[in-house]
Write a structure and sequence with these properties.
- By secondary structure, the chain is an alpha/beta fold.
- It folds into 2 domains: 125 residues, Urease, subunit C, domain 1 (Roll), CATH 2.30.40; 291 residues, Metal-dependent hydrolases (TIM Barrel, Alpha-Beta Barrel), CATH 3.20.20.140.
- It contains 18 helices and 16 strands.
- The strands form 2 sheets. Strands 1, 2, 3, 4, 5, 14, 15 and 16 form an 8-stranded mixed sheet that branches. An 8-stranded parallel sheet has the order 6-7-8-9-10-11-12-13.
- Helix 8 runs parallel beside helix 9 and helix 10 runs parallel beside helix 11.
- The longest helix has 21 residues.
- The structure holds N-(iminomethyl)-L-glutamic acid (NIG) and zinc ion.
- Zinc ion (ZN) binds next to loops.
Length: 432
């Protein structure tokens, strides 16, 4: 093969493909038995897609005549797919470190919310913030996630709760999507809380009659690309009826349903999502057995968020019950001013220790299954031919160290690669 390619990663001690039969998601035993090549190489073409992945000797022979823009000698190192963070709220102004102190002193999430803090605090600051400021902070946060191995990330609006600020947030996400290498899945979450001065019914009406119609116009004009619709379905926020009407309206506009459900109270959100054909439901700390069965049957992914349960000291989501029932389990960081975590390796560690997932399950949940939750698993989430060349090269001879070494990703991640381009080289950034 005498053509030119963008990148060769050669002689890796392990290449973790995740799967190699075009699976769109993994469940049960599939999550336990990941596809791993010992002594492997991978070739990424100038279109950024994977051209070959296999034993190093075979690739060496097949590509002996080829030239590469870049070659990474990964001897003694491991390659894993770029991580997919299936749930974040990364556009906001005003941190909530003071509320962290309140929660440590005993206040619950809803105590803070009802007292006008929480999401309301962030809404006030985000409404007041100029677009340019929000874009700078989003860019910095995404860069931080990328250095921690995230190559695809879901980004929600939801700190506007009215037309102007919701659109401002989606425009900021759109600007990042167009300019940064990280892959972004954009989510409209105008029903993230009931804005002050409105009832839930009035807020639902505003979403249905004001916000979604404008969103539809901007999407048709090509100004905005939005992939998913989200609602915070929770007692004292949006009930099942309001949630249903908003999600249905979003689905009718072509958005994927991907929402917050059964977090603090059992709401039957899982059953609703399954009935509406939701691609994913997040949180699920309070999901019922019926909800689990409905999600397994509907192939609705469960996006579990170990940081939230940890920070709020909630009961852990029932990951083992979901896994055993055959639910497609994915992971997200839930990065937001309440759960300030940019690191999917830490999320995987928490999922293993607190939710009793195995390391292969956690990696599958943070790659192929998280990509499925975003409708991207045909192009992302595993290292297979024709998928995007998004990968991490790890300074370790066994991939499990990425999860085992709590907070160790800063030293372990040597390169982050997106579409065959090195977007982070740890060696070149050691001095800051
Ligand atoms: N639960 C609702 N939304 C977020 C929290 C957002 C916030 O507190 O600002 C979550 O997923 O944890
Ligand atoms: Zn959330």
């Amino acid at each position: 093969m005498s053509s030119n390619y963008r990148l060769l990663v050669k002689n890796a001690k392990q290449v973790v493909l995740i799967c190699n039969n075009g699976e769109k998601y993994l469940t049960k035993n599939g999550m336990q038995n990941l596809c791993v090549i010992e002594n492997g190489s991978i070739v990424i073409g100038s279109d950024g897609l994977i051209k070959a992945v296999g034993p190093a000797d075979t690739i060496k022979t097949q590509y002996s005549e080829a030239s590469f823009d870049e070659v990474i000698d990964a001897a003694g190192m491991c390659v894993v797919p770029g991580l997919v963070d299936a749930h974040t709220h990364p556009v906001w102004a005003g941190d909530r470190v003071h509320e962290f102190a309140m929660k440590l002193a005993g206040a619950t999430y809803m105590d803070v919310h009802r007292a006008g803090g929480g999401i309301h605090f962030t809404v006030e600051h985000t409404r007041a913030a100029p677009t340019s400021q929000l874009l700078v902070s989003l860019t910095n946060r995404l860069a931080r996630m990328q250095r921690a191995g995230t190559t695809t990330v879901e980004c929600k609006s939801g700190y506007g709760l009215e037309l102007q600020t919701e659109i401002k947030m989606l425009e900021v996400i759109e600007a990042a999507r167009r300019t940064l290498p990280i892959n972004i899945s954009s989510t409209y979450c105008g029903a993230h809380a009931v804005p002050k001065g409105k009832t839930a019914a009035e807020a639902t009406e505003d979403v249905l009659k004001v916000q979604l119609p404008r969103l539809r116009q901007l999407m048709s004009a090509g100004t905005l690309r939005v992939d998913n619709i989200d609602v915070f379905c929770e007692k004292g926020v949006f009930d099942l009826g309001c949630t249903r009407s908003i999600l249905q309206a979003g689905r009718d506009m072509g958005l994927n349903i991907n929402f917050h459900g059964d977090e603090l109270h059992p709401m039957n959100s899982a059953q609703l999502g399954a009935e509406l054909g939701a691609l994913a439901i997040s949180h699920l700390e309070e999901v019922t057995d019926e909800g689990i069965a409905a999600m397994a049957a509907a192939k609705t992914a469960a996006v579990l968020l170990p940081t939230t349960a940890y920070i709020l000291r909630l009961p852990q989501p029932r990951a083992r019950d979901m896994l055993e029932a055959g639910v497609i389990v994915a992971l997200g960081s839930d990065f937001n001013p309440n759960a300030y975590c940019c690191s999917m390796p830490m999320v995987m560690h928490l999922a293993c220790v607190n939710m009793r997932m195995s390391m292969p399950e956690a990696l599958a949940a943070a790659t192929i299954n998280a990509a499925y939750a975003l409708g991207r698993s045909h192009t992302h989430g595993s290292l297979e031919v024709n998928k995007h060349g998004d990968l991490l090269v790890l300074n370790t001879s066994r991939w499990e160290h990425l999860i085992y070494q709590l907070g160790g990703h800063q030293e372990l991640i040597r390169y982050v690669v997106i579409k065959g381009n090195i977007v982070y080289d740890n060696d070149k950034t050691m001095d800051f």
